[in-house]
């Protein structure tokens, strides 16, 4: 698993600060990436939203592993990228599948299917874009940081 957190120097507002992790498409890899993301956000001064962002990112990573890499070789990789400025935080999870995610109706008969509903509740926006290399997709969420701080306070 590779990870590259990049934080801005204190007192210096960069165009973008970021965290990136490339990990194997296994459910056991999601927890460590989620914890590293949360820690990176806390160190960057975003502790008040770190838990919500980590939870929503975990849902996107789970969807990528379970659906985006289903039936692919064990060498399949998923990439999580988190970028933020003073105003906005964006988390994107890339997987090799072109199949689009869709919110599902909650059901008492199904254990899963609520992940995107949770992402929608925890973020200000979310969506899907085609993969940057002409295949796959990137499922992303965004939070407006000032609005997120007000929501937590």
UniProtKB/TrEMBL annotation:
Pfam families cross-referenced by the UniProt entry: HATPase_c_2
UniProt KW Methyltransferase keyword: no
Keyword terms of this UniProt record: ATP-binding, Kinase, Nucleotide-binding, Serine/threonine-protein kinase, Transferase
Family matches, as InterPro entries: Anti-sigma-factor_SerPK, HATPase_C_sf, HATPase_dom
Any one Gene Ontology molecular-function term assigned to this protein's record: ATP binding
SUPFAM superfamilies: ATPase domain of HSP90 chaperone/DNA topoisomerase II/histidine kinase
Domain Histidine kinase/HSP90-like ATPase as annotated: residue spans: 23-129
Gene3D superfamilies, per the entry: Histidine kinase-like ATPase, C-terminal domain (3.30.565.10)
PANTHER family in the record: ANTI-SIGMA-F FACTOR RSBW, ANTI-SIGMA-F FACTOR RSBW-RELATED
Protein name (record): ATP-binding protein
């Amino acid at each position: 698993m590779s990870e590259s957190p990049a934080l801005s120097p204190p007192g210096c507002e960069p165009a973008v600060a970021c965290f990136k992790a490339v990990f194997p498409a296994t459910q056991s890899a999601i927890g460590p990436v989620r914890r590293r993301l949360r820690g990176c956000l806390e160190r960057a001064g975003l502790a008040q939203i770190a838990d919500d962002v980590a939870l929503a990112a975990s849902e996107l990573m789970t969807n990528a592993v379970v659906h985006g890499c289903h039936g692919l070789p064990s060498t399949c990789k998923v990439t999580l990228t988190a970028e933020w400025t003073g105003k906005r935080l964006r988390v994107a999870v890339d997987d090799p599948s072109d199949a689009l995610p869709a919110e599902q109706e909650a059901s008492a008969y199904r254990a899963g299917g609520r992940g995107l509903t949770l992402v929608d509740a925890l973020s200000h926006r979310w969506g899907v874009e085609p993969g940057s290399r002409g295949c796959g997709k990137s499922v992303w969420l965004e939070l407006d940081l000032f609005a997120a701080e007000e929501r937590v306070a």
